[in-house]
Design brief:
479 residues, alpha+beta, Thrombin, subunit H, Pdz3 Domain, 3 domains, seven-stranded antiparallel β-sheet, six-stranded antiparallel barrel
């Protein structure tokens, strides 16, 4: 299974293709027993990864999914003219049909209770999920938590008999560019394959695959079918989940990306605890400091995040941040851009504080930043708009910091946001979309769902609806 966006392909599966022939030749007359010893020096580890692979590969599994897709029949026969002649006995099997879509991905067992990590896009919309181990055992699996914004899903294998292989966690924050890594997956459905390479880059934030971007880049061959597979270090520890490749041909070109295990563990802890995934609230919006902004501010080098707006009741406000401050470090780590800052906070548990470093004018300052959950204030007040209005068919909610965080937009925004649009509804035909923020109707400010409902009780003859769509102002005039 492969999803391509602007040259980036999400890869679905587990892989195994280890190039170790050279190692055997170099060992010459070494005995078979010595070849199975764990390498204990840099020189030896260049010769064979076999002991590491034998220890970790059994915990990398194939994931098979099934999805039932309903297809409409020929719409021509929905016309009343044809139904007058044919009634319900329409020709050509024009009724809805069902077909089954099968897909293949990979996963990693990280707990002998049957907890498996994979990608969200591997199991998204699946009606049935089956986990197959390397020893041919098969288990049905249920989704504990699936997070589209990081493309990570946590599964629970059913009817376990224990005795499951697992891979221990490493620390993705300790790896460096140039470190040797091993990728395990199932490319093109060939069967488990192992590839090796190095870490080519860290904190890749320009890869537009997920909302929280700070990927490990590797040149270890990753191909379609590898999604959800393991990226492990030379100690046999899991440091990432293979997620995507950059490719113009659909195959590996030596540019693969993995979600760091620091992010995965944050999602895993919520899934195992049975709690919703709630990330710490930043409470401010800002822009990356590029070369132009750096020059205007008199900074020697570009980098960091300049604060533009601060929510008055947020942790950012409590920490003393103000418009114009330039955040340059968090917990002693350099902040390169907004994506790296958001990624850092997204990997942290709620509670406690972190040290934030920023520039105010020419002076460097530090403050404690509390890791708090975004509040759901005002309450959502989820409402379906029904009737004969231009906004009929909308499902709307009040936009609170919690809702904004869940939808991946700035948490300092307020108003009424469209959570869903019923297909074929009046609102859909008028051009209103999910994620649109309704700001005014006929010149009246819309700050709460109740404001919108009040207008429908005495509907005007003409509607002038103003929307905020991803920062753009749109006006819809509907009679």
């Amino acid at each position: 299974m492969t999803a391509r966006v602007n040259g980036l392909s999400s890869v679905g599966g587990v892989g195994v293709a280890l190039l170790l022939g050279l190692a055997i030749g170099l060992l010459g007359g070494a005995t078979a027993s010595r070849a199975q010893q764990v390498p204990d020096s840099d020189g030896q580890i260049k010769l064979t990864f076999a002991p590491i692979v034998k220890k970790t590969a059994p915990a990398v599994v194939n994931i098979y999914t099934k999805k039932v897709v309903r297809q409409r029949g020929n719409r021509l026969f929905d016309d009343p003219f044809f139904r007058r002649f044919f009634g319900d006995s329409l020709p050509f099997n024009s009724g809805p049909r069902e077909r089954v879509e099968n897909s293949l991905g990979s996963g990693v067992i990280v707990d002998d209770d049957g907890i498996v990590i994979t990608n969200h896009h591997v199991i998204d919309g699946a009606d049935e999920i089956r986990v197959v181990l390397t020893d041919k055992r098969e288990f049905q699996a249920a989704v504990l938590l699936s997070d589209q914004r990081t493309d990570i899903a946590i599964l629970q294998m059913q009817e376990l008999k224990r005795d499951l292989p697992t891979i221990p966690f490493g620390d993705s924050e300790d790896i460096e560019v140039g470190d040797l890594v091993i990728a395990i997956g199932n490319p093109f459905g060939l069967g488990q394959t192992v590839t090796s390479g190095i870490v080519s880059g860290l904190a890749r934030t320009s890869v537009g695959i997920t909302d929280f971007r700070s990927f490990i880049q590797t040149d270890a061959a990753i191909n379609p079918g590898n999604s959800g597979g393991a990226l492990i270090d030379t100690n046999g520890r899991l440091i990432g989940i293979n997620t995507a490749i950059f490719s113009k041909s659909g195959g590996s070109q030596g540019i693969g990306f993995a979600v760091p295990i620091s992010m995965v563990r944050r999602i895993l802890s919520s899934a195992v605890a049975g709690e919703p995934l709630v990330r710490p609230w930043l409470g401010f919006s800002g822009r990356d400091v590029d070369a132009e902004i750096a020059e205007a501010l008199g900074l020697e080098l570009p980098g960091g995040v300049i604060v533009e707006e601060v929510h008055p009741e947020s942790p950012a406000s409590a920490a003393g941040l103000e418009r114009g401050d330039v955040i340059i470090s968090v917990a002693g780590r350099q902040v390169d851009d907004g994506q790296s800052l958001r990624f850092y906070f997204a990997t942290r548990e709620l509670g406690g504080e972190v040290e934030l470093g920023y520039l105010r004018g020419e002076s460097f300052q530090e403050s404690r930043f509390a890791l708090l959950a975004p509040p759901e204030t005002p309450p959502r007040d989820r409402t379906d708009i029904a009737g004969d209005f231009p906004i009929s068919g909308l499902r709307v909610v009040n936009l609170s910091p919690r809702v904004a965080e869940e939808m991946g937009i700035s948490t300092d925004m307020t108003g009424v946001i469209v959570e869903g649009v019923r297909r074929g509804s009046v609102a859909a035909q008028a051009g209103i979309r999910r994620m649109d923020i309704i700001t005014t109707v006929n010149g009246r400010d819309i700050t709460l769902v109740s404001d919108l409902v009040a207008i429908t009780r005495s509907p005007p003859g003409q509607w002038l609806v103003e929307l905020n769509r991803q920062g753009r102002r749109l006006v819809l005039e509907v009679r």
